[in-house]
Amino acid sequence: MLGQMQQAPLLLTDILRHALRNSADQEIVTRLVEGGMHRYTFADAGKRIAQLAHALTDMGIGMGDRVGVIGWNTHRQLELYYALAGIGAVCHTINPRLGPENAGYVMAHAGDKAVFYDATFAPLAAGLAPHLKSVEHYVEMCPEGQVTEVPIETQSYEALIAGKAEEYDWPTFDENTACAMCYTSGTTGKPKGVLYSHRSLVLQCIVSALPNSLGCEQGDVCLPVVPMFHVNAWGVPYTALLLGMKLVMPGPGLDGPSLHELIVKEEVTYALGVPTVWQGLLAHVEGNNLDFGKLKYSLIGGSALSEQLIRGYDKYGVKCRQGWGMTEMSPLGTINVEPEGFYDLPIEERVKRQIKQGPAVPFVDMRIVDKEGTKLAHDGEAEGHLQVRGPWIIDTYYGFEENALTKDGWFDTGDVAVIHPDGVMQITDRAKDVIKSGGEWISSIDIENAALNHPAVMQAAALGMHHPKWDERPLLVIQLKPGQEADFKEVQEFVNKQLPKISAVDDVQVVDEIPLGATGKVLKTKLREHFKDYTLPTAA
Amino acid sequence: MLGQMQQAPLLLTDILRHALRNSADQEIVTRLVEGGMHRYTFADAGKRIAQLAHALTDMGIGMGDRVGVIGWNTHRQLELYYALAGIGAVCHTINPRLGPENAGYVMAHAGDKAVFYDATFAPLAAGLAPHLKSVEHYVEMCPEGQVTEVPIETQSYEALIAGKAEEYDWPTFDENTACAMCYTSGTTGKPKGVLYSHRSLVLQCIVSALPNSLGCEQGDVCLPVVPMFHVNAWGVPYTALLLGMKLVMPGPGLDGPSLHELIVKEEVTYALGVPTVWQGLLAHVEGNNLDFGKLKYSLIGGSALSEQLIRGYDKYGVKCRQGWGMTEMSPLGTINVEPEGFYDLPIEERVKRQIKQGPAVPFVDMRIVDKEGTKLAHDGEAEGHLQVRGPWIIDTYYGFEENALTKDGWFDTGDVAVIHPDGVMQITDRAKDVIKSGGEWISSIDIENAALNHPAVMQAAALGMHHPKWDERPLLVIQLKPGQEADFKEVQEFVNKQLPKISAVDDVQVVDEIPLGATGKVLKTKLREHFKDYTLPTAA
Ligand SMILES: Nc1ncnc2c1ncn2[C@@H]1O[C@H](COP(=O)(O)OP(=O)(O)OP(=O)(O)O)[C@@H](O)[C@H]1O
Ligand SMILES: Nc1ncnc2c1ncn2[C@@H]1O[C@H](COP(=O)(O)OP(=O)(O)OP(=O)(O)O)[C@@H](O)[C@H]1O
Ligand SMILES: [Mg+2]
Ligand SMILES: [Mg+2]
């Protein structure tokens, strides 16, 4: 027997409508690509989103069309998010740091019909244009008359929307309609496309807005440092409107000084981003004797949050919350919201929990399995392949015939994890990066965390290197902080003291720069190439 | 084009699973019907819910079967909520205060296959049994060996579940499957059945858990005084598990002293109920020089929250939040969460907002229309019939052929309201109770609020009485506080001073007791009967 309630689809338009109705006067502040700041209200945004929807419709863009966006976090990209979704089109955000080859690949693969780009990326767009058959329109997200001179036919965003009607009669359609698209960051191969639906993003938005998920509160001012091309800036452009929070968009200014200025001036209380960004910001604040203004929380995810970062921010009263997710998960999987009374504990106790990835949010199911796919216990001991399922988790990659799931319907994350009895999940590694020593698995994250605790270490990466007896043994690669020197032996001792014997690193090597991928993650593939002729001293 | 995310149904089982995984040690405390207190953890509840599901299955109850429940808010009823929904059956909660005739009517109408009742309601159940053809099983929610002697075949709940397996392999099914059922309180006619789906209750649960809806926070201890037979206790049995909040169940103790004891001993921070309950509790605390312990919020809905109640609780530092909803809305429509900085305002300013019903929660759409169905402005001036739509709003009453909606898909609430430009909605009356004076509408809620401000007034009801010139003019009926006396003329002056001239009451009458309906609302139908031969002095 079915219930007899209304069949109202869950659409992103409902979030916009709610924001306009209940928080019309709330502010969105943007550091502009063209220089200066831009401020307006949700109500103003609503009008421009309607104008943009009219412009898109006039360009012949409609249901199911993919539109590429290569840009910084700005109010204009926010407008694209809502206008495209609102008319049933698909906002395909492109990570410019992927490099022209990969960017061109994903745009061709997605079959983008139009491309919106920031001035910064005009050369990238223009360079790709000759190879992109599907693209009919190019638009630079800039003021009228300020289009960067490039050898393609293009127009300015502001001219495009100027004069259009400020209301749009948003259509209603199936909540499973596609609305956004993002390719994985390609750290482990060619990027693969994930096609989000209204339903999946609305649900992940509501759930991430719960007090025991992101934990945003009334009056929070939200700064998504995480790019809008990195899994929809983790959904913040939706969550902020749902909760009526002031939204601060950093534009191209992702360096320490720019972010710091924004946090202090705009009274940011809740910021989100990957560890490398938080590292840069912390160094700036420490180096210049500054503070973090009203910042209360930084949500950190995308790669592991280190003890060193937690301690660094703790000194300033900023609480680091770790989140774990994936492009394939929209991205929300776990958030390590502190249990009640957590901040009464001493920091030594707290870091132990904070370096874990956290408990799953509602409606996300997690399990760990062994090589054969047998379910392992959630006892904090067993380590296995982490698999997930839920309403905002991928079924099938874009353009693939077969789904991406196990026979019994779970998605294998490619991560290796332990699940504790209280539901808290802890990633020990990517399956590809796990160091296999004498039949046991060594966590490279544990080693890297230990290394980052060293005052001279800026970046760290542990690699499993061939060993004749143990199969693999860990090599620690470090990048030093500018102007710092370090004694390899001393670093090795410092690190090994913190680790169980089996995880003790066999050697330490320094490189000038540990290569980072398009989303600020260590590129172990590149690093492995660099060390392909290296032999561990213990293996000689 | 459809998105390519997993098609995971939204089921109440997911909320239970989440609670067991992330908050296994959280507590549920119940004042037992059989006397004494009962405490256990979410983990314990999970086991008993599984046991109950096995027992129900063994009784032949399955997908689509309706099971009647006549009981107080207890852990056993909570178990029924989840076990019935989990196996795809329908939990039909019955309001015992409806009286035997109405209770029998709704049970027969629903076609309940089994009935679970508390000892208090054994006579009611036994009395109805001969008339209920569909019921195959009676279960008293009591310990083994303590079944009340009644002339029907019955068994004890504890014996029923004893020894069953403590795990249940919950099935997966369409999220639109029915899971719960509630009849309207019948203040305006025969009760009508509303059949909730998993989808509708899950969505209303997540949305009510948002920080700008109920506004519960980590560490809150939740007391649903609102009965579980009154629109699922406004969803609290779901929300508490979703957020991992300690849940305190008042059982049959809804009087001031019992509630007060529970609030203080169990350190309740967030309580929910109808105004009459809050009135009783306040009188008890005031009369005995007590305080409210750790209580921070009382969410008040079901009928209008009065200024007098807001002020009464404000003195004790307890914040009154008004909610508005209906059985047909699962019930959540609006919650008047205070904007930022609200509590910096003086009380005079605050009450003006707090007596309003509040802004709509996300995904609920509201509009006001005139008699002809033309949409009216949300300008804080225009007053019209309030209509709603959204994913947890009724489509069709149980057993009806035609849907309950307007031609363009809205549900008419039967309420008359104003919507302010900031989205805040204010009920002025039920359409049936509106006082029509010379072509204008007078709000009976305004008059009642003004009357309740009088120190001697306990309950108030405004009725539109026939008037030869104006069509109708307001009569104010009051019930005095115990031991209080009042001069009619003085009350009339006191009230009229607070009202616009057109709303000034033409007369005041005192009754011993204003009749309340099954959910603590003034029964105007009864009151009108009482005054059917009365003539206004101004009409003579
Ligand atoms: N808090 C975290 N701690 C550790 N690892 C994390 C955390 N958050 C995310 N990750 C890692 O990032 C991955 C998801 O990243 P994303 O979807 O951006 O692309 P990618 O996996 O880096 O790229 P590709 O799949 O193309 O190789 C996770 O599978 C996990 O390995
Ligand atoms: N905060 C509130 N302020 C004023 N009225 C309220 C409030 N909350 C609920 N109500 C009234 O209660 C009604 C919903 O109550 P409910 O669904 O319990 O049954 P009922 O309408 O009283 O019964 P029936 O529909 O059978 O007559 C609303 O339509 C509204 O009139
Ligand atoms: Mg990946
Ligand atoms: Mg009603």
TrEMBL record, chains A, B:
Output one GO BP term.
Answer: fatty acid metabolic process
The region annotated as signal peptide is none
Q: What NCBIfam families does this protein's entry cite? A: PRK06187.1 (NF004837)
Q: Name one GO molecular function term.
A: ligase activity
Its protein name is Long-chain-fatty-acid--CoA ligase
Ranges of residues in domain AMP-binding enzyme C-terminal: 447-521
Looking at the record's lineage, which domain of life comes first? Bacteria
